[in-house]
Design brief:
By secondary structure, the protein is α+β, with helices and mostly antiparallel strands. Helices cover 18% and strands 43% of the residues. Strand 3 and strand 4 form a beta hairpin. The N and C termini lie far apart (67 Å).
Length: 368
Amino acid sequence: MKFMCSRDRLNDAISIVQKAVSTRSTLPILDGILIEASRDDGVKLTGYDLETGIEAQLESDIRENGAIVINSKLFGEIVRKLPEENVVIETDEKMTINIESGPSVFSIKGLSAEGYPKIPEVTDAQKVILMQGILKEMIRQTIFAVSTDESRPTLNGCFFVCDGTSVEMVAIDGFRLALRKKEVGSDLPIMKFIVPGKALHEAGRILGGKDTELVVYSSQNHILFDTGKVRIVSRLIQGEYMNYKAILPKSGETEMLISTAAMLSAIERASLIILSEDRRCPVQLSMPSDEVLVISASTELGTLREEIAVSIRGEKVDIDFNPRYFIDALRAIDEEEISIQFSGSNGPCVLKPTEGEEFAYLVLPLRR
């Protein structure tokens, strides 16, 4: 194998596929990046941890076909520190990979590509075409609510639903729910599946701008995100997802209209004196009138009390929440004003848009 490429482009490709390289595998070959060069297909870099695989195409001048596996961490460190922009990579029959850039020549022992596991092919798949920016935002606005409790595996991912005209993503961790919905066109396939949180997290870091297309392929067992230059393949989580529509209250006993930024800033200030997520240290919301929300916190460090102008309809509530759950939801909301519906002082609250149904964030209160 022999090819010439740009150092910066090679570094970018390594950074992308490293996200799928195993860090705790008992198989040494999974610590590596597979490099394949073909005059017909170009140069492809692959990282795969047996759950998630990422392939990145690299623009190169290919002199000789071939393939090899090189330790991911070492390869990345070497390429980042190469002295010149042009890089020549060549392998020999002893599984040595030579990396040459200007006066620097590294010779590193590699592994045979024959032992590298093959990423599953996503065949007999349905597909939906989205703009990368749309999916990137939807991931950002839901991923934080994915559960890490391995005893409930279906909640370890986001539920992806396409109903023919819209795409919906839902995440639940047992204490909160995040839902994001986007109308994206017509004549879309009817499909639903659970994508592991890790795969979505990496996809969110890789996806690009709003004007670039992405093709999402889903088969019975796997999902493929294809940007053209990068392909992310992951196993799907099998099982029935929780009936999230039954969890969301249809309406609340109390509705409050409030500035998103004002509420976020106030709860962030309250969290400064809440150094633990202990249930004994909540942020408290109370409503002395129809036009004032009081946000307060009290810990061993001190206290905070802050008033925010709001518009309230219905019964007054006095309720405690984990501030982190509110902060995560409020940071994911782009609208200037939101509606928050409360189901009494012991029931869940739901953050919604003032108009439409593009998002919903449910947060359970802490019991006093």
